[in-house]
Amino acid sequence: MIKPDAVSAGNTGAITKMIEEAGFRIVAVKKTQLTPERAGQFYAIHKERPFFKDLCSYMSSGAIVPMILEKENAVEDFRKLIGATDPQKAAPGTIRNLFAKSIEANAIHGSDSDENAEIEGSFFFAKTECF
Ligand code: CMP
């Protein structure tokens, strides 16, 4: 999911190009906006964290671009491509190193397991939208 900071900065195209050039196939993509409640559902796992309320307001502050991606070893390879959560710690050349503004406005989200990729994919897309 490309996050509001990167979409509003006009970086959707550059980030999508990096994703495709790294060998990911885009199975589904759209531009949409979350309400704070929907953002809270997406990040329910973080609801006890001190940054949860701010995260929900940030994630609903503008358009996002969720995608379903396909590749061998996709979860691990995507996390390498995007870099560490904190852009200060993200390796040079990673998406967060290049485009993130802060630990919160960190440009992009990637699923942390195949199981969560299924759950997060179906949060945004019906099976009939995936080709
Ligand atoms: P993401 O990988 O999408 O998962 C949780 C999100 O919470 C994270 O990226 C950031 O956007 C946000 N966040 C804000 N503050 C923190 C923090 N201190 N540690 C981790 N994540 C944070």
Write down the CATH class: Alpha Beta
Might you state the CATH topology name?
Alpha-Beta Plaits
Largest sheet: 2 strands, antiparallel
Mean pLDDT: 98
Q: What's the end-to-end separation, in Å?
A: 18 Å
Q: Please identify which CATH superfamily we are dealing with.
A: Nucleoside diphosphate kinase-like domain
Highlighted features:
131 residues; mainly alpha; Alpha-Beta Plaits; two-stranded antiparallel sheet; 7 helices; globular; binds adenosine-3',5'-cyclic-monophosphate
Set out the fold topology.
Elements: H1 4-8, H2 12-21, E1 25-29, H3 36-42, H4 52-59, E2 67-70, H5 74-82, H6 95-99, H7 114-124
Antiparallel strand pairs: 1-2
Helix pairs in contact: 3-4
Bound molecules: adenosine-3',5'-cyclic-monophosphate (CMP).
Report a brief summary of the structure.
This protein has 131 residues and is mostly helical.
Word description of this protein:
The chain is mainly alpha-helical and 131 residues long. It has one domain: Nucleoside diphosphate kinase-like domain (Alpha-Beta Plaits), CATH 3.30.70.141. The protein is 42% helix and 7% strand. It contains 7 helices and 2 strands, in the order H-H-E-H-H-E-H-H-H. It has helices at residues 4-8, 12-21, 36-42, 52-59, 74-82, 95-99, 114-124, and strands at residues 25-29, 67-70. Strands 1-2 form a two-stranded antiparallel sheet. Helix 3 (36-42) packs across helix 4 (52-59). The protein is globular and about 35 Å long. The two termini are 18 Å apart.
